[in-house]
Amino acid sequence: MRSFVSEPMQYGRLFLAGDSAHIVPPTGAKGLNMAVADTGQLFEALLAWYQNDSASELADYTAGCMRRVWRVQEFSNFMTELLHHNPDKTPFEAHLQASRFNQLITSPTASAVVAENYVGIAAKRAGKVMNNG
Ligand SMILES: Cc1cc2nc3c(=O)[nH]c(=O)nc-3n(C[C@H](O)[C@H](O)[C@H](O)COP(=O)(O)OP(=O)(O)OC[C@H]3O[C@@H](n4cnc5c(N)ncnc54)[C@H](O)[C@@H]3O)c2cc1C
Q: 3-class SS at 123?
């Protein structure tokens, strides 16, 4: 259930992507999605560097990933808290968890929010709207 974010996602000219840059608990099933999204973003930045001598995309790499990285961290944390039984929880916290779960299965709005996070947030890159983790 480890969570970790390296910010920035680079050290000098070494760029980090995937699990080397961030770890999420498995509950959201997001680790591979994130690795693919990072790689797509880095690919376009490297393309801009090698094809157009443009360094700004590489300079923006971390900032471009962070919104998605923290959204996925929060979602994975939410799913872990929602779905896992934790014997250390107080009875009050256990009731909050049960109430959250009940809302998820009875409210179309609450389930739509979870579904949106599950299928990935949309991101605009290079003029295209893409599924981004
Ligand atoms: C049981 C399990 C279930 C999972 N289920 C899901 C899921 O349903 N959905 C999801 O999105 N994610 C899932 N994940 C997470 C996902 O697998 C990882 O987040 C993803 O593989 C990270 O990709 P990566 O390329 O960053 O790292 P990795 O896939 O770990 O790739 C790193 C590679 O580097 C190699 N390597 C390491 N050290 C060296 C070295 N010194 N020299 C050369 N090569 C080296 C390794 O052998 C490995 O091939 C799951 C993970 C596990 C363990």
A: strand
Nearest residue (by CA) to ligand 1, atom 25, is: 18
Name the residue with the closest Cα to ligand 1, atom 53.
26
Whether 33 lines ligand 1, by a CB cut-off of 6 Å, is yes
Taking only the tens place, the pLDDT of each residue in 4-51 is 999 999 999 999 999 999 999 999 999 999 999 999 999 999 999 999
CA dist 101 and 48 (Å) reads 45
What is the maximal distance between C-alpha atoms in the chain?
A: 59
Read off the pLDDT band of 130 (50, 70, 90): low
Residue 126 has pLDDT above 50, yes or no: no
Give residue 99 CA to ligand 1 midpoint distance, Å: 35
Q: Which domains does the chain have, with CATH numbers?
A: 4-132 (3.50.50.60)
